[in-house]
């Protein structure tokens, strides 16, 4: 699989607000890439630059090695599934899907065939004559897909396509999207602020914040080895706590020292201040006094399969989030322990303000 | 999607149809018959007959506006509370007279109020003495209220019909009585409609010369009549323009006052 | 109780609004000229109305000016709205501020201002000056009704069309214009009715010898009310009634249809 799209040093501002701060991104042929981030992180602008709706202030966009930065949107071999679908309200389903074919003056019987095929691909066979306002949200979503794929684009851009759907439909559509991508064998660039969608469907997840790419990797890598507190926090419920390397491969958190697997070789020498992620499911509960540290359960929630608890540490100020299958009562004193490989040490974000603090110490 | 140059015909039209004409009023207003600069045309407002006309215009316009408001608000509330289909019908019934030429509508009152008119015919048939109703300030107010009432009802109805019923229910739920619900929920939310209703009634009422001409028999002069005569009878455009400028100042002041009301009303909501 | 009071109130207002009009309608069929004595049913005032060359000319002027003014205003206004969408918000607000002037200003001031303008540039007052003036006060209404339809959604649809390969012109014709159509239509209709209904601005910007329905009524009323004006009132009322009923019924039907489809 070769490289299909490459963004190089993309910078973009709107009215003095910098939205993209030098984005470098490479998308391979037939890859499912998700740009993940909170609203305002720049993911939509990145997509619009790939689609050709925005011109970057600096940087270039390449498609199969060819510079397409100045190519207008209507000539690019990409199609978009818009947020809220942007279906043409005065046309029926057939005309909506046929739009790009009509533009290219495709013959009428060929149009009919291809529209029918596209409808079949999104499981809405026979919907040709429906009006747009007769469709449910999920159906509109599928029509938007059909309209975007009927012209057989090399890349499909999807701008939060599931954002307007309810949870159950959304999960259903996630499977559909993966199936459709397999069937079409084309590249998907997908935008979402929902970490679950990103982790479920993607080959590669690109986490963005404030116009920077924070981390790029497979869903597994992003989940297991977040590079900083922002990524860790965005990817899921987690204990993200400040710490300091106490010794080689020992980190001190909240007054307790824990052995870990990162040391000088990984860029974490003793005395370095760090952020630490410990996933709530990785903290084991043991009888009081028998673990690495102790605490008191302050609240408990049953969520489906497991319990979620908040535990106030008795060594310092931190309240730990735990997930456990066993029931424990509020007020109970417990011991806790965590395996060294489940302690994820991360660099502090390298913003100017924070490096200044580091020097003070 | 489109180019900025699309606005060029519009901008030319604004300049030729609005900006230059307004500048020419200002020019004539500050120019004397012999072509020099003067403030006489503006100061002429202080002439006794002009002051009287302006005073009467303000009085009649304010009275008509208040009457319209008093009639329109309950009407708008009734429309709001009546059922949908009926509501559509009632709105239709209020809009319909607006489609009739307002000169004809004013003429209708002439026919009714005339010495030989319909009302006097009925009165004398019952055996009562003939009434002089035409050519009085009362007749003019009646004509103004009749002509402009729909312009008060519709904007108020538009805002009160959009008030979410839950807000009113919430107010009752929180212990408000009917008066409190009106003063602290419905009125504040209706302010934008009331303000635009007042604008749409007060300004034409203040500046009219047609209604006063038709129902005042040329005997009652409003500021609009004075200005109209300067242009059509006396051909003194300088004086007419000067008085128009004064009238515009009154319009601007009243709009600014109203707008402030609207803003504070909006602020009260938060 | 409350409902009864409400109904009585509505009834009183309706009587206030419609009794004067009803009086005109009744009198239009009166065979005598008297406003207070019923002399029997007759259509003579209608005959007189239709025989009047001046009245027919005024009617023709009124409607041709209204159609032309509305057309001009629709084109200029719609183009302006599209052009403004490409401008910065601040520039847009300045233009909209100017746009509001003819709507907020008193008609008498607008009329006088235009009259002075025509005098200054030496334009002979007549049909063309009325037409220019009417287009001037109609443009703001077109802009007001089309502008809400040019929004983020229109932008998105336009982009979607480009994304699907349409050229800019094609996307505009096939996607943007149909989206704007309801606004353009209502802007046109609003302009048309404003123009037909106008008296004051026409009064100041017309020349001698040209009349619209409004100016003709005004000059006739000044001389003395002729019953043929009652006939004219009746006709205008009936036409307005039919047109409004037609529009309303069509609207109702459209509403019902969308309501059904939503279910």
Question: What report would you give on this structure?
Answer:
The complex is a heterotrimer of chains A (361), B (270) and C (263). With 361 residues, chain A is α+β, with helices and mostly antiparallel strands. Chain A folds into two domains: 3-224, P-loop containing nucleotide triphosphate hydrolases (Rossmann fold), CATH 3.40.50; 237-360, Nucleic acid-binding proteins (OB fold (Dihydrolipoamide Acetyltransferase, E2P)), CATH 2.40.50. Chain A has helices at 43-51, 93-103, 108-121, 137-149, 167-184, 195-201, 219-224, 229-235, 352-360, and strands at 3-14, 17-28, 32-36, 58-63, 66-67, 78-81, 155-159, 187-192, 204-209, 212-217, 239-247, 250-253, 256-259, 273-278, 284-286, 293-303, 306-313, 319-324, 333-337, 344-346. In chain A, the strands form four sheets. Chain A has a six-stranded mixed beta sheet with strand order 6-7-8-3-9-10, with helices on both faces. A five-stranded antiparallel beta sheet of chain A has the order 13-12-11-14-20. By secondary structure, chain B is mostly helical. Chain B has a single domain (44-269), classed as MetI-like fold. Chain B contains twelve helices and no strands. In chain B, helix 7 crosses helix 9. The longest helix of chain B is centred in the N-terminal third of the chain and has 34 residues, at 48-81. Chain B starts with 7 loop residues before the first helix and ends with a helix. Chain C has two domains: 1-42 and 227-257, no CATH class; 53-224, MetI-like fold (Orthogonal Bundle), CATH 1.10.3720.10. Classes of the chains: A alpha+beta (361), B mainly alpha (270), C mainly alpha (263). Chains in contact: A-C, B-C. The A-C interface holds A 51-53, 72-75, 78-80, 82, 84, 86, 88-90, 99-100, 103-104, 131, 133-134, 147-148, 151 and C 153, 156-157, 159-168, 170-171, 174-175, 178-179, 258, 261-262.
